[in-house]
């Protein structure tokens, strides 16, 4: 039982939750989208600076639980420097990881990135928390597609 | 009241035996026992005693039929039992008679019924409806729908830092433009019990009717709609240890009588033709379609159950739990209780510094402790206290001091976990 908790709240997650990286609003951001979970009131803005089809900068602001904050923070580190297509692929990989016991990971996601994403996979044991983990990712994906907000019933 | 006397009057261990679900554990895994369930979420929905479960089962097995229709034996039997519960509910609220009792699907539907039927008929552009800051969304959104349609104005009574309703502000808000007051009788977040009688008296001085949302209040104390002089009073069966899918609207008969139907259908008409249809008198007028018959039987059993235990004895037990839990929780560093009104109901909402309520909820759940986290369907209130979401522990007639201890213990674990 407590093993599941340790799996969910790994040190790296607690760290990102407490000290989120890229927690800011970049001046040159040219895409942004809101992610909101009406159940708990978590709310994030994700900002992207897309240059020539590459995510030049990615950051976020808002407030949420340790899981959603850590996931948003780790996302910013993983997505930066990726092409829009790669970033979207990462979103799908992460979504699979959080929701499927046997995730179907898209081709072309490197092992190192997968290893970092795996940290969040403990959330699978906590179905009601999957929305927390994927909230900022949905917003990032919405921003990639030029949408203003992630649909609130996605997860 | 000393603990000894309290324990003699109220044997909580025996009460717990009436609730089969309380014996279960949660999070059991292969080869590993689970944790005993510590259910502190009765404010969201209460567990059901065997007496309610058995009454519903017995009804389905022996007496079930549709009501108000058949000439056959079972339909008569079912109708008699159904209507007997209406009479019981009237007595439970001390309503003058059972014609004032309308069965609905929920408290929410009961409020929507009043907003839709009374509101659309008697409220016009510029008329004001007074709500309070501590309303559940169920007593906000129906009025906003009316606002969009009829251009009414919604005024909101604030509360102070303890969560006490600001009666001076209420007096100031009452005016010639006020056409209805709709206020909770007990906040589902703060536990605050509002001074219903004074609220109604002040409104009546201006001829304004008052609706009370009694969803929490009927559970934790005795409600007398005639003493309060409520014009409308709503509650729901599932928080009162009864089944889901059933709410109650009490309305003064003179008001109900002049209100048009809320929904159309069978069982609410006198005669139907394509030239015109005439409607039955209340309460039938507001009960279109086949009602939740078995659930009404269950509510009857739930009322019998709480009355057999004694509503004062339940209230005393819950008050003891509230005091004990408040005292224990207050000793946790960084824990802030939101809602400290005198005489409040056994509901404790709190924030733990440095830890998001959602994370608190997940961790205490692993210890078997079921609490509600979030904004509890009362977003404006969360803004008012600037706490965002909170954790809410709500106590019922079956909870124990040991369960309050289990909550405190699990919160200590949360703090260790997060180093908070």
Automatic annotation (TrEMBL), chain A:
Q: Kindly give the InterPro entries that the UniProt entry links to this protein.
A: NIF_FeS_clus_asmbl_NifU_N (IPR002871)
User: Where are the bilayer-spanning segments?
Assistant: none
Q: What residues does the NIF system FeS cluster assembly NifU N-terminal domain cover?
A: 9-131
Example GO biological process term? iron-sulfur cluster assembly
Provide any one GO MF term from the record: iron ion binding
Gene3D superfamilies listed in its UniProt record: 3.90.1010.10
Which CDD domains does the UniProt entry name for this protein?
IscU_like (cd06664)
Pfam families named in the record: NifU_N
PANTHER family the UniProt entry points to: IRON-SULFUR CLUSTER ASSEMBLY ENZYME NIFU HOMOLOG
Instruction: Give the family per the record.
Output: Belongs to the NifU family.
Q: What protein name is recorded for this chain?
A: Modular FeS cluster scaffolding protein NifU
Q: Which organism is it from?
A: Azospirillum oryzae
From TrEMBL, chain B:
Q: Which GO terms describe its molecular function?
A: cysteine desulfurase activity; pyridoxal phosphate binding
Enumerate the InterPro entries for this protein: Aminotrans_V_dom (IPR000192), Cys_dSase_SufS (IPR010970), PyrdxlP-dep_Trfase (IPR015424), PyrdxlP-dep_Trfase_major (IPR015421), PyrdxlP-dep_Trfase_small (IPR015422)
Q: Which cofactor does the UniProt annotation name? A: pyridoxal 5'-phosphate
Q: What's the domain of life for this entry?
A: Bacteria
Mind listing the UniProt keywords for this protein, alphabetically? Answer: Pyridoxal phosphate, Transferase
Q: Name one GO biological process term.
A: cysteine metabolic process
Its catalytic activity? (sulfur carrier)-H + L-cysteine = (sulfur carrier)-SH + L-alanine
EC numbers for this chain: 2.8.1.7
Q: Which Gene3D superfamilies match?
A: Aspartate Aminotransferase, domain 1, Type I PLP-dependent aspartate aminotransferase-like (Major domain)
Q: Name one Pfam family in it.
A: Aminotran_5
- Asked whether the UniProt record includes DNA-binding among its keywords, one would answer no
Q: Which SUPFAM superfamilies match?
A: PLP-dependent transferases
Looking at the record, the residues that make up the Aminotransferase class V domain are 38-407
User: What's its top-level EC category?
Assistant: transferase
Which family, according to the similarity comment?
Belongs to the class-V pyridoxal-phosphate-dependent aminotransferase family. Csd subfamily.
Protein name, entry field: cysteine desulfurase
Its source organism is: Azospirillum oryzae
């Amino acid at each position: 039982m407590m093993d599941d908790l340790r799996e969910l709240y790994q040190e790296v997650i607690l760290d990102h939750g407490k000290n989120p990286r890229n927690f800011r609003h970049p001046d040159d951001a040219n895409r942004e989208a809101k992610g909101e979970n009406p159940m708990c009131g978590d709310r994030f803005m994700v900002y992207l600076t897309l240059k020539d089809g590459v995510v030049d900068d990615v950051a976020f602001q808002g407030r949420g639980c340790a899981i959603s904050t850590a996931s948003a923070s780790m996302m910013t580190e993983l997505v930066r420097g990726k092409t829009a297509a790669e970033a979207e692929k990462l979103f799908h990989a992460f979504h699979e990881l959080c929701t499927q016991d046997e995730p179907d990971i898209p081709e072309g996601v490197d092992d190192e990135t997968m290893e970092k994403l795996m940290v969040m996979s403990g959330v699978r044991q906590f179905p009601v928390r999957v929305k927390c983990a994927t909230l900022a990712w949905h917003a990032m994906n919405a921003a990639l597609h030029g949408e203003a907000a992630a649909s609130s019933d996605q997860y | 009241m000393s603990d000894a006397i309290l324990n003699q009057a109220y044997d909580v261990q025996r009460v717990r035996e009436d609730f089969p679900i309380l014996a279960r554990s949660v999070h059991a895994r292969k080869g590993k026992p689970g944790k005993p369930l510590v259910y502190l979420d009765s404010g969201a929905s209460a567990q059901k005693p065997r007496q309610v479960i058995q009454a519903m089962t017995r009804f389905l097995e022996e007496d079930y039929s549709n009501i108000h229709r058949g000439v056959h034996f079972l339909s008569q039997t079912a109708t008699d039992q159904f209507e007997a519960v209406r009479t019981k509910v009237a007595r439970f609220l001390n309503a003058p008679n059972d014609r004032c009792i309308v069965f609905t699907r929920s408290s929410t539907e009961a409020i929507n019924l009043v907003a839709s039927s009374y509101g659309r008929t008697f409220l016009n552009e510029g008329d004001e409806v007074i709500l309070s800051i501590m309303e559940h969304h169920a007593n906000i959104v129906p009025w906003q729908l009316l606002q969009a349609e009829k251009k009414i104005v919604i005024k909101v009574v604030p509360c102070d830092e303890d969560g006490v309703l600001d009666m001076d502000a209420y007096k100031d808000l009452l005016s010639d433009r006020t056409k209805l007051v709709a206020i909770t009788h007990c906040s589902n977040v703060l536990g605050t019990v509002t001074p219903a009688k004074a609220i109604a008296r002040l409104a009546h001085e201006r001829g304004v009717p008052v609706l009370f949302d009694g969803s929490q209040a009927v559970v934790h104390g005795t409600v007398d709609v005639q003493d309060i002089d409520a014009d409308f009073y709503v509650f729901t069966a599932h928080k009162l240890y009864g089944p889901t899918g059933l709410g109650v609207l009490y309305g003064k008969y003179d008001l109900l009588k002049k209100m048009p139907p809320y929904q159309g259908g069978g069982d609410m008409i006198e005669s139907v033709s394509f030239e015109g249809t005439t409607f039955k008198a209340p309460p039938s007028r507001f009960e279109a379609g086949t009602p939740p018959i078995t659930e009404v039987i269950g509510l009857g059993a739930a009322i019998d159950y709480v009355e057999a235990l004694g509503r004062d004895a339940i209230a005393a037990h819950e008050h003891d739990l509230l005091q004990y839990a408040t005292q224990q929780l207050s000793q946790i560093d960084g824990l802030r209780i939101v809602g400290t009104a005198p005489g409040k109901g056994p509901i404790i909402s709190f924030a733990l510094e440095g830890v998001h309520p959602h994370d608190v909820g997940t961790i205490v759940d692993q210890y078997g402790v079921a609490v509600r986290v979030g904004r509890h369907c009362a977003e404006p209130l969360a803004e008012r206290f600037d706490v965002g979401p909170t954790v809410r522990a709500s106590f019922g007639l079956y909870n124990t001091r040991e369960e309050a201890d289990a909550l405190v213990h699990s919160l200590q674990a949360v703090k260790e976990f997060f180093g908070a």
